[in-house]
Amino acid sequence: MMTLKEYADSRSISYETVRAQAKKYEKELEGHVEIKDHHRVIDDYACDFLDKHRLKKIIVMQSDNDGLKHELERVQEENEELKDAIILLQKQLQDLTRQNASLQENLARTDTLLLLADKEHEQFERVQAEIRQSHDALIESQKDLIEANEELARYHRTFFGFYVREL
Fold it and tell me: Does residue 25 sit in the same domain as residue 76?
């Protein structure tokens, strides 16, 4: 003896299906269905009867097994191709990631070298400006020296050791 719920669970069908089937065959199952503790309980005869009548209504589906097999094989082949493609793309991604890291390192080095070159260029320009200033100062000194030499050339030594300016 088992409840309708236990019967449904043992057959992997819903309780509602069993309840509807028991109600449908209520006359045939008379005396084999009892109510105990507010639950319907069926005996072995009722279980066999419900099994037989339920099995009569099984729907048989015809299928094209060969077609399904070919479709399954095609899908499996496509799946393998996609797996290979994914593996290839992952390798390419790893290579590109390595290249990207290398390029970023090179970019950092280049930026550092450019900063150093800019500093050296600024220093070169400062030195060049200092050289121009020194050159200008030297030219001024040379002009002053030439003027002093010209002025000195106008003086002549006299007999007594003095110098006289020529007019």
Answer: no
- Domain span at 88: 64-142
- Please tell me whether residues 50 and 96 are part of one structural domain: no
Report which residue type is found at 50.
L
- DSSP helix/strand/coil, 63: coil
State the Cα angle at 80 between 79 and 84, rounded to 5°: 115
> For 121-151, what is each residue's pLDDT tens digit?
999 999 999 999 999 999 999 999 999 999 8
Q: How many CA atoms lie within 13 A of 56 on its CB side?
A: 6
Tokens at residue 142, please? 């040379």
d(CA 49, CA 44): 8
Q: Are residues 46 and 83 in the same domain?
A: no
pTM above 0.90, yes or no: no
Q: Name the DSSP letter for residue 108.
A: H
Cα dihedral value 96, 98, 99, 101, nearest 10: 120
- Same domain as 51, residue 95: no
